[in-house]
Write a structure and sequence with these properties.
Blueprint (H helix, E strand, L loop, with lengths): L23 H13 L8 H5 L20 H8 L17
Helix pairs in contact: 1-3
């Protein structure tokens, strides 16, 4: 099943929707942080099987859509005194 993916670049586009204050910003920040540091999720089937060999951020495809402030949100969650990041109020992309 993963044979065609190994060694090739696959772009995954993911939309996240939910109610206000449901944790979408924290979910996206956590997901991206864990994918970028793939050693943090050894039980992820794609990582364990070798199908996911690397994950990295690329320039966003549409500069007219605001960028998701991943680094700012991650800094809030990993600060000396961690705090919830500001919620994302509009559509954004990463």
């Amino acid at each position: 099943m993963t044979g065609g993916w190994i060694g090739s670049e696959v772009t995954v586009r993911l939309g996240v929707t939910g109610l206000s204050r449901a944790g979408k910003t924290v979910f996206i920040t956590s997901l991206v942080a864990n994918l970028l540091d793939r050693g943090r999720m050894p039980q992820l089937l794609g990582a364990a099987s070798g199908a996911v060999q690397a994950a990295y951020l690329q320039p966003q495809p549409d500069d007219t859509v605001p960028r998701f402030e991943y680094e700012t949100h991650l800094a809030a969650l990993t600060a000396d005194q961690p705090h919830w990041p500001q919620s994302t109020r509009n559509v954004s992309q990463l």
